[in-house]
Amino acid sequence: MPSECKSVERRRWPTMLLLFLLPWLLSGCAWPPIDTPRATLIRPPESGSTIAGAGSTKSGDWPRRQWWKRFGSSELNRLITVALQDSPTLRWAATRVHQAQAMADARAAELLPLATSGLAVSEQHYSANSIQAKLAGQSFAYVIINPVQMQYHLDLWGRDRATLDEAMGIERAHEAELAQSAVTLAAAVARTYFRLIAAVEQERIAGEILGTQRTMLGLEQARYTFGLDSKIELHTARTGVDEAVQRHRAAAIQASLLRDQLAVLAGQGPDWGGRIHTSEVLLPDRLSIPENVPLGLIAHRPDVIAARFRVEAASKGIAAAEAAFYPDINLRGFAGIQSVSLIDVLFQGSSLAFAVGPTLDLPLFQGGRLEANLEHQRAQYDSAVETYNGTVLRAAQEVADALARWNGVREQRVRQQQELASYEANQRLAAVLHDHGLRDRNRVLVSLSSRDDQRLRLKTLEAEQLRAIVDFVEALGGGFEIPGASQSR
């Protein structure tokens, strides 16, 4: 009977101990500070009126991933392909993605049990006055062999999971930023290549103008020699040649600089740019505008997606910081051999030792560390939200600006084409009159030079319109889709 009472008492004492410790456990929890109002995400601004007023546009799909192929230039395809492979900027962004992936893997490992193995051998001597009376004054070798040591964190409050979600959000943000870097790089290569095409054409036309001016100078020199014109006309002709030389030289220098710039964008040396050739590209007459542009920016612009992922990561950081205020419980255990005798370790089972049980850590007093960390996470969340809001507003503005720039340049190009047609008609008429002896050759050369001036202006506007298309494609996200972006809408 006494043995049965003892058995009942042994079963009852854990419950009594838990009831005794419960008030202490509850009082031992630190309490998070009162939360203040957080920043809120904005909705994408309306831009339907801007798009509806674009008379040169039509409805269509979002840009495709390799949008630059629509221009029909194999050289442009090659330049962008090389740039996306060899650019140091993209490689640097890729290393940040790799770092974020490694951090997320480390956070995921914290959700799994930890198992280690240990071995310790030490020579010890106990004091003769030690409380270890049995071993007082003795020296011996102490051996601990623990083939299995285990630890598992009970994530009761979701702290480890929130930390993992935060790390994964940062990883996705870096992936989106890598995609944004690719979009920016491809757009920069395309814009620079279109400027190079214009510069090469301007150099060629400027060379033709220079030839015309030199012919005019020869005629004025002959007229001055025979006394048909004064020195003023001769000086004017020489000035025209000098100006044409400067224009031709400026176009050549511009083309050389643009080749060097393309080489840098492609991650190549300066000599590589000299092998870039130019070719005709297709100039679309209308833009294809996707439907629901404001909302679609969230799913198609990598920078907006990256900002949204950072907001989500920051919210998980708040959850992890709040969970740090509650008790932390770990399950720990070991199984091994402990002995002061090597013979016992080898031949006796009495040296077997093991233990298993929970450990409890209470955040009683942290000197304000938990509160400071939580306030830091909350401020980081507010900063991420405001960054996201600013990115969305900037994205909508860039779409509207690119569309307005396209329409403006297109109208200028149409007017310039009409202007050029008028000058070409005048030049043909002057040539006909000269063939019939009704106009001297000098006036024909003047009309020819004026026509070439208009051709130069048209080439400049065509390049600007091509760059406006690139701006619009980049503003719509550049055709890059981010895995998991739909979850952030």
List keywords for this structure.
64% helix; disordered C terminus; two-stranded parallel sheet; Outer membrane efflux proteins (OEP); four-stranded antiparallel beta sheet; 489 residues; 12 helices; single chain
Which range best describes the helical content: under 10%, 10-25%, 25-40%, 40-55%, 55-70% or over 70%?
Answer: 55-70%
Calculate the terminal CA-CA distance, rounded to whole Å. 70 Å
- Give Rg in angstroms: 39 Å
Low-confidence stretches: 1-10, 485-489
The CATH topology of the largest domain, please?
Outer membrane efflux proteins (OEP)
> What is the makeup of the main sheet?
4 strands, antiparallel
Structural class comes to: alpha+beta
Q: What is the correct CATH architecture of the largest domain?
A: Up-down Bundle
- At the fourth CATH level, what is the homologous superfamily of the largest domain? Outer membrane efflux proteins (OEP)
**What is the CATH C-level name of the largest domain?**
Mainly Alpha
- Give average pLDDT, whole number: 82
Measured by DSSP, the beta-strand proportion falls in 5-15%
Number of domain units = 2
Q: Please tally the helical runs, counting DSSP H or I stretches of 4 or more residues.
A: 12
The strand count comes to 6
Describe the protein.
The protein has 489 residues and is an alpha+beta fold. It has two domains: 40-111 and 158-327 and 375-488, Up-down Bundle (Outer membrane efflux proteins (OEP)), CATH 1.20.1600.10; 115-154 and 328-361, Outer membrane efflux proteins (OEP), CATH 2.20.200.10. It is built from twelve helices and six strands. It has a four-stranded antiparallel beta sheet with strand order 2-3-5-6. Helix 3 (74-86) crosses helix 5 (159-225), helix 5 (159-225) packs antiparallel against helix 9 (302-323) and helix 9 runs antiparallel to helix 11. It starts with a helix and ends in a 14-residue tail after the last helix.
